[in-house]
Design a protein that fits this description.
about 160 residues; alpha/beta; 8-stranded mixed sheet; two-stranded antiparallel ribbon; about 30% strand
Length: about 160
């Protein structure tokens, strides 16, 4: 499949240089990272959330987990994980479970965990289970400039 059309178009519109890292088909971000020899701290995963005012994407290292109590408090809103049908409708050109960590490409608000701020490079799902998008850390930060920045991830 390659990276999602919406994602490729967004990266082109933003003038971002990136590489696509092809890998054997995997079922999880953890497996994608292992297969591609990528540190989990440098793989930005997306978690689609639903709240009273719609959907948003939380972006955090694949090595971490969302602290929902902390995130809700910082957002000042009740949010929970979106269900599969909702995610598939929002990310129509992506395979289930391969949501790119660039919610803005899909017109969604984004909250990004501060632990990704200093990374020299970032990888993210490309919209399928056989490719990762590789960006410089500065390009990722530029793409996240309009996102809300908080600390809400907990390392395992």
């Amino acid at each position: 499949m390659g990276i999602a059309i919406t994602l490729a178009r967004y990266l082109a519109e933003q003038g971002v240089k990136y590489d696509v890292v092809e890998h054997p088909h995997t079922a999880t971000a953890l497996d994608s990272a292992k297969t591609s020899h990528v540190s989990l701290d440098r793989l930005a995963k997306a978690v689609v959330l639903k709240g009273d005012d719609g959907f948003m994407v939380a972006v955090l290292p694949a090595s971490g987990h969302i602290q929902f109590g902390q995130l809700r408090k910082k957002l000042g809103a009740e949010v929970d994980m979106a269900n599969e049908e909702q995610i598939e409708a929002l990310f129509h050109d992506c395979e289930p479970g391969a949501v790119p960590a660039l919610g803005a490409a899909y017109g969604l608000k984004v909250v990004v965990d501060d632990s990704l701020a200093g990374a020299p490079e970032i990888y993210l799902e490309g919209g399928d289970h056989a490719s990762l998008v590789h960006l410089s850390g500065s390009a990722f930060q530029d793409l996240m400039a309009g996102a809300r920045h908080e600390r809400f991830a907990e390392a395992p």
